[in-house]
């Protein structure tokens, strides 16, 4: 015979514990994203002041888009910082589950995520909606402010000590600076000729409105396959 009351109590306990945990993680990532925005603006303002005496044509601009997104434009690049509205749990196969940090308190394995994308600034300026952007890093932060970063090059190995690393303004500044350095070194490649040799009349007629040939820094190549030498 099915014990409906037992099942109902079990459901209540799971919902209570899991929902409270996810709210704690979500509220924490919102707080950290607000702090990150301030750090992002500080980094941008400092670089902008320095560039004024060098070349005013090089645009450095911070933009607070909304509660979940902020941009930092540096010359021909825009770094998009986007906070995901969901809470995620590390995959069961992740080696972190073998550590005492997660074994002792499994709730530590739930994180909020801030994704960092790199777009060409012209993609936004001319509203080229077919242009490609690339995720260069994502920041995981749990409700105890422990964090790690998955990303390209130094972003993938400088900030991966989830057990011992606690997020603060200094670490945020370091992550932002590493992201900017990667984006600036991630050059625009000429797309393969065969991918751009044909164009429709519709596309040509829309050139004046900003809809140009699809552009991306690695158009025609898989970003996931980029090596540290790229």
**Helical fraction:** 25-40%
Q: Distance between termini?
A: 63 Å
β content, as a range? Answer: 15-25%
Q: Runs with pLDDT <50, length 5+?
A: 219-225
Helix and strand content put the structural class at alpha+beta
Task: Provide the domain count.
Answer: 1
Radius of gyration: 22 Å
Mean pLDDT metric? 84
Shape: globular
Key features of this structure:
20% strand; alpha+beta; globular; seven-stranded antiparallel β-sheet; 230 residues; 7 strands
Task: Describe what is shown at a glance.
The protein has one domain (4-187). The protein is built from six helices and seven strands, in the order H-E-E-E-E-H-E-H-E-E-H-H-H.
Task: Describe the protein's architecture and organization.
About 3% of the residues have low confidence. It contains six helices and seven strands; from the N terminus they run H-E-E-E-E-H-E-H-E-E-H-H-H. Helix content is 37%, strand content 20%. It is an alpha+beta fold and 230 residues long.
What's the layout of helices and strands?
Elements: H1 4-52, E1 60-66, E2 69-74, E3 77-83, E4 88-89, H2 100-104, E5 110-120, H3 121-125, E6 134-141, E7 147-151, H4 169-185, H5 193-196, H6 201-205
Antiparallel strand pairs: 1-2, 2-3, 3-5, 4-5, 5-6, 6-7
Helix pairs in contact: 1-4
